[in-house]
Design a protein that fits this description.
- The model has no long low-confidence stretch (mean pLDDT 92).
- Helix 5 packs parallel to helix 6.
- An 8-stranded mixed β-sheet has the order 4-3-5-6-7-8-9-10, with helices on both faces. Strands 12-11-13-15-14 form a 5-stranded mixed β-sheet, with helices on both faces. A two-stranded antiparallel sheet has the order 1-2.
- The chain is α+β, with helices and mostly antiparallel strands.
- The chain has 7 helices and 15 strands.
- The longest helix has 22 residues.
């Protein structure tokens, strides 16, 4: 059993407390008061309550640290302290429709040395309240599900691979871009899934349940934890150009080494063809 780092214990304790609240609200989902945040982008009182719990618990445990929160935005901390990147309810639409597939995502990001810019994510947690699964990772120390070490799948051939993605919807995403990529990848793989929670897609990729993942138009809180989980499980995470930012969100392609290179080739070819039309 791994010796769980103190920062993971702090994050997990906060996530379990917020997750308990989400479980109760999920059981009463039809009674939630829901307000629109934008086209097809809803935020519930459950979302806001979970974020408040996470913020208060994490701030109490780590005074002076900053936050990047999905709902409240950026809350600066002390100049030399890291920040938490938090999605209190990834899969809000699933939650509000009674679909039991959503998660809490927390990443810890450090500042670049001698800079005001943010650098690597060095601790990550994706917690699924309904299944009580806690995926966590620490930089250079591996990725874990509870006390079980995670590894990306060993599949080497696209025709054996199960790929996850996020599909554009009203006022969100580029349908033409996604369609081009899907047309290139879809015929080559064993299947494509869209479950509606990017943090869990990446956690499941780290656990070997999925073999690859692509999406664009995400936000840092969607992928901060998931990027580290995949990398610490032996996978590769890049943007569509093949670069490896600390948090790949605007564009993300993730898989093991063999499948990443094959998927990247298909993706780049699809985008070039689309641009030439």
């Amino acid at each position: 059993m791994p010796l769980k780092p103190s920062i993971i214990t702090v994050m997990e304790r906060a996530a379990r407390k917020a997750g308990s609240r989400l479980r109760r609200d999920f059981g009463e989902v039809e009674h939630l008061q829901v307000s629109k945040k934008g086209p097809a982008d809803f935020v519930s009182k459950a979302d806001q309550k979970a974020e408040r719990i996470l913020y208060e618990e994490l701030l109490h445990a780590r005074p002076g640290w900053g936050f990047l929160l999905e709902e409240a935005g950026e809350i600066p901390g002390e100049e030399d302290k890291p920040r938490f990147v938090v999605d209190p309810l990834d899969g809000t639409s699933n939650f509000l429709h009674g679909i039991p597939h959503f998660a809490i995502s927390i990443g810890v990001q450090e500042r670049k040395l001698g800079s005001e810019e943010w650098g690597d994510v060095y601790a990550a947690l994706v917690y699924q309240p309904l299944s009580d699964e806690s995926f966590w990772a620490e930089k250079a120390k591996g990725a874990w599900l509870g006390d079980r070490r995670l590894r990306v799948s060993g599949r080497r051939h696209l025709n054996e691979a199960l790929i996850s993605t996020g599909i554009p919807y009203k006022a969100h995403g580029d349908f033409a871009e996604w369609s081009s990529i899907f047309a290139a990848i879809g015929p080559q793989v064993a299947g494509i899934r869209r479950f509606g929670a990017a943090s869990l897609d990446l956690a499941w990729l780290a656990a070997g349940r999925y073999d690859g993942f692509w999406e664009s138009g995400l936000s840092p809180w969607d992928t901060a934890a998931g990027c580290l989980l995949v990398r610490e499980a032996g996978g590769f995470v890049t943007d569509f150009r093949g670069r490896s930012p600390a948090i790949a969100d605007k564009q993300i392609l993730a898989a093991n080494d063999a499948l990443h290179s094959r998927l990247h080739k298909l993706l780049v070819g699809a985008l070039r063809e689309a641009q030439s039309e």
